[in-house]
Each structure stands twice: as C-alpha cells, then as structure tokens.
UniProtKB/TrEMBL annotation:
Similarity-based family: Belongs to the glycosyltransferase 1 family. Bacterial/plant glycogen synthase subfamily.
Tagged with keyword Transferase: yes
Gene: LOC111274881
Enzyme class: transferase
Coiled coil location: 177-232, 290-348, 373-473
Record-given protein name: starch synthase
SUPFAM superfamilies reported for this sequence: UDP-Glycosyltransferase/glycogen phosphorylase (SSF53756)
Length: 1077
C-alpha cells in the first residue's frame, strides 16, 4: 500500500518531465488518478464525523481550485525565463482539475451510500454532534499546521528551470519540485484525516459492542418469557377444547328437556334431571373461567407477536453489528497500509530535503549560468547588428555595381554607335551609286522579262501535255506492279479465303492456283477485287475473283511449315521463335508462307486474329480407321495459319499442355499425317514443306511413301533439328498407327534407331527422307557429326553430309528492340546509352537491390535450369560476382516435365539418372534463392516472366551463358541487342555469335564479348576477371563495346537468305530432274 501511495504522488508530480517517454507517462498518470481514489476513506466505513471532515476537505480544495487554475507543466524544450515575484504558491496548484473531479465524484458516491445505509438507532445523536464538531476543529487545526509546514518548506521562486540529473537521468525543474513538495504535504494531510477517522471509528465500535452485550441480555430474557408463554398457550388450548365439548353436551341436555317438558314424567326422571341441571350449572361456572383463560391467551398471543417483532429487530441489529466487525477489519488493514505509506513518505521527504539542499547550490550555479547567457545574448545582439550593417553595405555595393555595369554598357553602345555612324555615311554614298546602276539595269530587265514570259507560257503548255501522258502511263504501270501499301496480314487473309473456297468446292484447284499466284505477286487487280467484294455476298465475290484467273507464273516460292510450336500462340522454347521469325522474313522477301499447327486447348487464342472454322472436315487415317479433323484458319503476326483439331476419342491436343503425355508419339504422328491430308484435299502445290524436330519428322517418310503417289508431289522436304538431344524414339510397332510400313522402315538405312534395332527414330527418318537437312548453327552442325555430340546419329549425319548444313538462327528485331520496347522504363539506342543506365537504376529499385553505386556492374542470366545450360557454372558465377563487387540477377525456370521442349528424350534422360539431377538442380537453386532472399546484391527469380526478361536484358551490363552445349542460343543475341556484353562458353551457336575481345585472330570490328573454352570454374573466373577489369578501369572502351554490340545485325534477314538459297537450289534440281524424265 505504501509503495502504491508513493508511486501515485510521485508519478503524478513527474509526469511530462521526460519527452522521450510521453506514452508511458500518460499511462502512469491514468493509473495514479485511480490509485489516489483508493486512499480516500469509504463513506460506508466512516461515521458522521468522518463524513463532515471529508466534506470540509472537498470544499477546501474546491475553494483552492476556484482561486487558481490548474498548473501548466513546463516542457524541457521551453526557453528559460526568470520567475516573477508574483508567482503563485505551489500549494494552490497541487490539485488539478482531474483531482477535483475525482474528489467530487467520490463525495457524491458517499452521499448516496449514506442515504441507503441502515443507521444504528442506539447511537447517541448528541455524541455524534460532539464528535463531528471536534473532528471539524481537528481538521481545521491540521489544515493550519499543514499550511505552516508548507510555508516553511516552500522554496523561493527560481529564475530559471533547474536540471536535476537523478535516478536514470530524469530532469526536474524548480517549479515541478515545489509541486512535488505540495503533493507530499497534501498526502500527509490526508493521512492525518484518515487517522482521525480511524479513532472515531474505534470509539463508535466500542459503543456498538457495549450496546450489543445489553441487547444480547434482553434477548435472552425475552426468549425465556417466550418459552413460558408457549407452555401456557398449550395448556389453555387443551382446556378450551374440553370446554367446547362440555358446551356441546349441555346443549344436548337442554334440547331433551324441552322435548320432554309436555309429557308426564316420573319423579325419578325429574330428580335425575335436576341432578343433571345442577351438574350443568357447575359446568357453566367452569365455562366462565374458560372465558377468562381465552382472553388471557389472546393477550399472550399479542404479546408473543410483539416479542417476535422485537426479536426480528434485534436480529437485524446483530447483522449490522457483524457488518460493523467486518468494516473494522477493513479499517484495520487500511491503517496498516497507511502506516507503511507514511513511513515511505517520510523517507521520500528526507530525500526531497536532501534534494532541496542540492537545489540551493544549483540555484547559485544557475544564476551564474544565467549571467553568462545574458552576456552571450548581448554579444549575439552586437554580432547581429554588425551582420545587419554588413548586409546593408553589401546591398549598397551591389547597387553600385549594377549602376557601374549599366554605365559601361551605355558607354560601349555609344562607341558602337559612333563607329556605325561613320560607316553609315560611307554606306549611303555607295547605295546611291548602286541605285543609279540598278535603275539602268531595271530598264534592260523589263525588256528581257517580257520575252521570258512568252517563253514560259509556251513551256507550261508543253509541260502539261507531257504530264498528262506520264499520268496515263503510270496508271497503266500501276495496274501491273505489286501493291506495297497493304500489310502482310491482308494478303494472308486473302489466301485463307481462297483456300477455304477450294476446300468447300466453290472453285477449282486450277482457279485457286491462278488466284494464289496473283496474291504472291500482290497484284493490284486482286487487291481491288477483294476490297470491292467486302459488301457483296459470297457467290458474287467468287464470280468476281474468277474473272481474274489469267496471270503469268508466280515470282516466289510457296513454303509450308508444319510444326508443333509457333510464337507467340504456342511457344515453349526456341522452336516457336524460329518458325515465326523465319516465316516473317521469307514473307518479306516475296514468298508465300503458310504454317500448320495442332489446335491446342492451352494456346493463346487472343494472339490469333480472325480465327474461324472452315465449313469442311478433313479425314485422315490412323489405327486402321478414318478420323475427321476440323480445320481452323487465322493470322498470327501477319502469317496465315491452319489449326488442325482432331476428332479423336483420345482428344490428342486437349490435354492442357503441349508436351509431356505418355502417347506423344501417337499424338504427333497423327498430326503429321492430318497436315499432309489437308494439303492434299485443299489441292495445294507447295514448293517446300518444312518440318521441325521429331514431333513433325514423320512428315518426310509419310510424304514420299504415301502422299507423293497420291498427287502431292510438287514439294521438296526440308527438315530442321533444333536439338539432337531429343529424338523421340519409340517401339517400331507404334509406327504402324499412322499407316507407314514398319518392315520397310525399320531398317538400318531408314528409320531404325542406331542403338536399338526394335525401335524407330523419327529424327533419323527425317534425315534419310528429306531433301534438305539443317540445324541451328554451323558449329553445332560440326559438333553433332561427332560421336559425343551426335547422340547416336553422327554416322547417319556423316552419310548424308551433302544435304546437311548449319544456319545460325536470328531474332525478331521488332519484338526485341530497345528503342520501342514497351516493357522498359526508358527506351534507348546505341547513340543514347543514358536510357540503359536509367533502366538499370529502375530495375534495382524494383528488385530491392542496393543502388548507391551507379558504377557497380550488374550481371544478368536468363535460362532454363537444366544440366545443358551449365547450372553448376551459373551457381559459381553468382558467388564469383559477389566476390568481385558486382550484382547478379537470375531469371530461371525450374526443370518441370510439362514445359520441356522435347519431353520424350527428357524422360529417357531422367530414367537414366532416376530424375535425381534435375531435382537436385531445382532444390539447389531454391536453397540459393532462399539464402539470398533479402540480399542487397543478389536476386534469384525461379520462374519465367516475359516483361521482367526485357527489363533484365536492358539493365544488365554483362550476360552469362555458360552452356555445356548450345545448339544456337538466342539469349546472347538479345543481350547484345540491348547492350549487355555476353560472357559465353565457346560451343555451338555461342561460338558462331560471340567473339572474344582479346582474340587477335578475329577482326576488331567483330569482337563483341568474352569467351572461355573449358566448362569449369577456372574458365568462368578468367572471363569474369577480364570483363570486370575492362568495365571498371576503361569505361570508354566498354561504352564503345556496348555500342558495337547493339549495332550488330542479328535479324532473320541473313538467315532467311540462306534458307531461300537452299530452297531455290532444291526446287531447281527437282524441276530439272522432272524435265529430264
């Protein structure tokens, strides 16, 4: 209790002193207000004298509150000001408004309790009055004594706020110390009031106990009398019952006497009756006695009721006495608490007296400090005055300087004007001479102009005649020249319309061929006809087009791509990019290009324009039956595309993924035959059928064995293998599903797999049956002809080496263009590299990397996390970059089965290794990603994000591609397109596109990156050290290297030209052979 009381008063006084702990002070203050209310004695436990003392105390504080408003705490940051002599006594500012409100509330509660309390009737009212008066006098004496004590303890007003560093560094001002002393005095005053209340309560208790003993004696006597009255009541009740019986008998006798009165009776009966009457009279006399007894019983009953009421009152008084005992126990506990709190307050008072002695010394120091402050203030005032004067002087000097400048300018103008006036005089003289000469010449020129006008009129007539003739000639030529202002999408839509009419048997194959030739030439007539038929019905449009069926031969080649992917509608890997990029490049060169794809349920239909189903079905053979196929047409990136939707019960292409099914061999062999069936039934005569990877490698043997004999014999077959790692081998018996002759094809010189005689290899079959075989880079073409790189097909490739070559892929320079890339924060070019630096800073902020050092190199990596890509070298590059003071960003998709490009061989590889290596790679990089999750220089994103990939290409300074083998690779080309210098291993397409800056055997203009040969950590370290050294120590050379990389042409134009040459030679040989036969 003492600890709580001391905490209450001291925390109330110290609240607000420390600005660093405001929240704790507010909570402490709220608790202290509640605690203060606990120390006021309860009205239920105090006699009337205590009530009056409490009212006096409350009114006394109310008067103090009315005299002085609540004190305001002085913050520690307030300016020091001397205290005035009129400063109020701290005693008057002890209780604030919160204290008064709680005391008022407590008094109201006490009044309510007093109204409901049951007062003891035996307490002498005069004694109560005497006790109340004495209590009031004592209270006044105590107040007077407390005021004297307070006056003696009150400190003189301090002129400045004093800092007292005690118990944890709290600082107290002098005013707050006086508040503390005032609160201690009030606490002592409250304690004295509580002691007085305790004395009065003890006196009242003694009186109540004595009255209790007297009442107990009276109760005992009343109980004895009550027992006696009960016994008498019982006896009276018995007698009353007996009297009632006698009265009944008497009544019966009287009735008998009346009944017998008229008849003669014998003397004996009369005598007997007289005896009975005498007995009855005796009984009647006795009955009167009973009457008196009943009255006495009634009086005893009333007295008994009165006694019961008295007993009930005594019991209630006894319960009140018991309650008084409990209250006395509570008062005794409070007395012990008050004694302990008094001791605590005495100790605090002693400490405060010691502090007051320290305050006296501090006041002296404060006065000295204040004097110094005043001196400093005087010095500051002088300095400010001098500064103001200096500013005035400076302003005056500036005004003078402006005036001098104006004077100098006016002087210069005057000098110039003087010189110019002299020149003007000379100029006027010359002008007068020239005017005379001009007048003479004007007269001559008038004559010449007149003659020239006549000649001009004649020439205008001749020019008009010539212009009219030229316009007529241009109109004639325009009708025969190709139309260049229509997009390729327009011509693709026109071709799809013509093919739809052929399939629907609305035009003949011959007419369709002639109309296609007009489209190939981009003829003006067919363009005008198509535009004119927009508002006509289909029959009128067909008749309009049939009028145009007389045209010369086609100027270009007709190429059909049959593939499993096409970017962006069905893209898994680089295959989709090649199909789209090569087709667009060939189309720009004037060739007719069409693509046939499976209609996957998971492809991006929003990237297909004008998608519609043809009103015709194509039947194809499979597993001994004919199945219908629905044909859809649309344009993708301006290219005409056919989508085949098989109506097969196994729903081959409605699986939710492109690859990864157990029956992939059947799925794609079915599609390959359905694609050829579409060409046959549509009457198409392509020059080149280009198939890609093992999924459509079935086209080559199907074409020569089944469809060339049926009339689809105009084409040459070109097969491109994008990665010999995936060959799609399967049991030879599965080849029969698509209608091929298994015994004829399961031979060593045809489709039989080189490592298993009971299996067939679609890639080998395409190599054998195709007229042209290509892969995606020259170096990779050499690597796959070795036993290590050929994956079992090196002997077949060497045997067919004359038709096998490597052509480096290109990239879509429209999609990957930093000057127009919508995914970048800032577009930039090779001539304006500032945008690249801004993208680097923006990506650092986006990924949460440290961006304090703009010159810190950033290494990027975008790859699939498979062993082929050198994942162990990527891991080493991360740590090596960190050691060399760089930053590293990885965007890598984990090796999940359903996103592999060629899954069957992936399964074979996984089975050979139990799938453990891919799983380890994935888990390993997840662990590294978690390790560097919040690192300021490393960030790993284990998913593919198209927009983020553009961002990383643009932001990175270097790009790491440490592949174990790489057929072509597009990331190094895209990186250089965005000015990111590649660090690559010399293998496959990387060796054909990245040339080391320190290689003297390479012409200087072709050097564009850093390479290493051995696939180990030493090779990576060497390339990294050279790259970082050039970046940090020779920024000028680095910037020139970046510009050179961005200016390299990696478009499909050169690659398409090589394919065009291969196509043309193959078609020419076929036509020459046809002529000879």
């Amino acid at each position: 209790m003492a600890l709580q009381l001391s905490t209450c008063f001291f925390s109330h006084g110290f609240i607000g002193l420390n600005n660093n702990n405001n929240e704790n002070n507010v909570n402490s203050y709220n608790k202290n207000v509640n605690l203060r209310l606990l120390f006021l004695p309860s009205r239920r436990l105090l006699p009337a004298s205590c009530k009056m003392q409490q009212r006096n105390l409350s009114s006394h504080h109310k008067r103090q509150q009315g005299k002085k408003p609540p004190s305001v705490r002085i913050p520690t940051s307030a300016k020091l000001q001397p205290n005035s002599e009129e400063e109020s006594d701290p005693e008057n500012s002890v209780l604030n408004s919160v204290d008064m409100e709680h005391i008022g509330n407590h008094e109201t509660t006490c009044k309510d309790d007093a109204d409901t309390r049951v007062d003891v009737k035996h307490i002498d009212e005069e004694n109560l009055g005497t006790l109340s008066v004495s209590a009031i006098d004592t209270n006044r004496d105590m107040e007077h004594t407390d005021e004297q004590i307070m006056d003696s303890l009150t400190l003189p007003a301090v002129t400045k706020a004093l800092a007292i560093n005690r118990d944890g560094g709290e600082q107290l001002s002098g005013v707050q110390l006086e508040d503390l002393i005032g609160m201690i005095k009030n606490a002592e005053r409250n304690i004295l009031l509580l002691n007085q209340a305790r004395v009065h309560a003890l006196e009242d208790l003694h009186k109540i106990l004595s009255e209790k003993e007297t009442l107990q004696g009276e109760i005992n006597i009343l109980e004895m009398r009550l027992t006696e009255a009960d016994a008498q009541i019982k006896v009276a009740c018995q007698e009353k019952i007996h009297v009632e019986l006698l009265e009944d008998q008497l009544e019966k006798l009287r009735n008998e006497l009346i009944h017998r009165g008229g008849s003669g009776k014998s003397e004996l009966e009369l005598s007997q009756n007289q005896n009975k009457i005498s007995n009855e009279e005796v009984l009647l006399a006795r009955d009167g006695r009973v009457h008196s007894l009943s009255k006495e019983v009634d009086s005893l009953k009333t007295e008994n009721l009165a006694l019961k009421n008295d007993i009930q009152a005594l019991k209630s008084m006894l319960s009140n006495v018991k309650n008084t005992d409990e209250r006395m126990i509570t008062l005794e506990n409070e007395r012990s608490f008050l004694q302990s709190s008094l001791k605590e307050l005495e100790s605090k008072l002693s400490v405060s007296q010691e502090d007051s002695s320290n305050i006296s010394t501090l006041k002296v120091e404060c006065k000295d400090l204040w004097a110094k402050v005043e001196n400093l203030q005087l010095l500051l005032d002088k300095a400010t005055k001098q500064a103001d004067q200096a500013i005035l002087v400076l302003q005056q000097n500036q005004d003078l300087r402006k005036k001098v400048d104006k004077l100098e300018e006016s002087l210069e103008e005057a000098n110039v004007f003087k010189v110019s006036s002299e020149k003007m005089q000379q100029y006027n003289e010359l002008m007068q001479q020239k005017m005379k000469l001009l007048e003479e010449r004007l007269q001559k020129s008038d004559q010449e102009i007149h003659s020239y006008v006549q000649l001009y009129q004649e020439s205008v007539k001749e020019f008009q005649d010539t212009l009219d003739s030229l316009i007529e000639e241009s109109k004639k030529r325009a009708s025969n020249e190709p139309v260049d202002d229509m997009p390729w999408e327009f011509w693709s839509r026109l071709l799809l319309t013509i093919d739809g009419w052929v399939l629907e048997k609305k035009i003949s194959n011959t007419d369709a061929k002639l109309l296609r030739e007009l489209v190939w030439k981009r003829d003006q007539h067919i363009c005008d006809a198509y535009l004119a038929c927009k508002e006509k019905n289909e029959s009128e449009a067909v008749s309009t087009f049939l009028r145009l069926t007389s045209s010369p031969a086609s100027p270009g080649l007709y190429v059909v791509h049959i593939a499993a992917e096409m970017a962006p509608v069905a893209k898994v890997g680089g295959l989709g990019d090649v199909v789209t990029g090569l087709s667009k490049a060939l189309q720009k060169k004037g060739h007719l290009v069409e693509i046939i794809l499976p209609k996957y349920d998971c492809m991006q239909y929003n990237r297909v324009r004008d998608l519609r189903a043809l009103d015709v079905t194509v039947e194809s053979y499979f597993d001994g039956k004919l199945f219908q196929n629905k044909v859809w047409v649309g344009t993708v990136e301006g290219l005409p595309v056919y989508f085949i939707e098989p109506h097969h019960p196994n729903k081959f292409f409605w699986r939710g993924q492109y690859y990864g099914e157990h029956d992939d061999f059947k799925r794609f062999s079915f599609f390959s035959r359905a694609a050829l069936e579409l060409l046959l039934q549509a009457g198409k005569k392509p020059d080149i059928i280009h198939c890609h990877d093992w999924q459509t490698a079935f086209v080559a043997p199907l074409y020569w064995d089944l469809y060339a004999p049926k009339g689809l014999n105009s084409a040459r077959i070109c097969f491109t293998c994008h990665n010999f790692e995936y060959q799609g081998t399967a049991s030879a018996t599965e080849l029969a599903s698509c209608g091929l002759d298994v015994p004829q094809l399961n031979r060593p010189d045809r489709m039989q797999d080189n490592s298993a005689h009971d299996r067939v290899n679609p890639v080998k079959g395409a190599i054998v049956f195709s007229n042209i075989v290509t892969t995606v880079s020259p170096t990779y073409a050499q690597e796959v002809r070795t036993a290590e790189g050929g994956r079992g097909l090196h002997s077949t490739l060497n045997f067919h080496s004359k038709k096998f070559m490597g052509i480096l892929n290109g990239i879509d320079t429209d999609a990957w263009n930093p000057t127009t890339d919508i995914f970048l924060k800032v577009q930039y070019s090779a001539n304006e590299l500032q945008g690249k630096a801004e993208n680097k800073a923006a990506m650092r902020r986006h990924l949460g990397l440290l961006s304090a050092d703009d010159q810190q190199p950033l290494v990027g990596c975008i790859t699939r996390l498979v062993p082929q890509k050198g994942v162990h070298l990527i891991r080493h590059a991360i740590y090596r970059t960190l050691e060399m003071g760089g930053q590293f960003v990885l965007l890598g998709s984990s090796p999940v089965a359903h996103i592999q490009v060629n899954l069957y061989c992936c399964f074979v590889y996984a089975k050979a290794n139990d799938g453990k290596e891919d799983l380890i790679n994935k888990r390993e990089f997840e662990g590294i990603a978690n390790q560097f999750q919040n690192h300021e220089h490393i960030r790993l994103i284990l998913k593919y994000d198209e927009s983020l990939s553009h961002y990383i290409y643009a932001a990175s300074d270097m790009f790491i591609i440490p592949s174990i083998f790489e057929p072509c690779g597009l990331t190094q080309m895209i990186a250089m397109r965005y000015g990111s210098v590649p660090i690559a291993r010399k293998t496959g397409g990387l060796n054909d596109s990245v040339f080391d800056v320190d290689d003297d055997t390479i012409p200087h203009q072709f050097r564009n990156g850093f390479t290493f040969t051995t696939p180990d950590e030493q090779g990576v370290n060497g390339a990294f050290e050279r790259a970082f050294n050039l970046y940090k120590n020779n920024q000028k050379s680095w910037q020139q290297l970046v510009r050179n990389d961005m200016n390299i042409d990696f478009s499909w134009d050169s690659s398409a030209s090589q394919y065009e040459e291969l196509y043309a030679k193959s078609v020419a040989r076929a036509r020459a052979a046809a002529i000879h036969t």
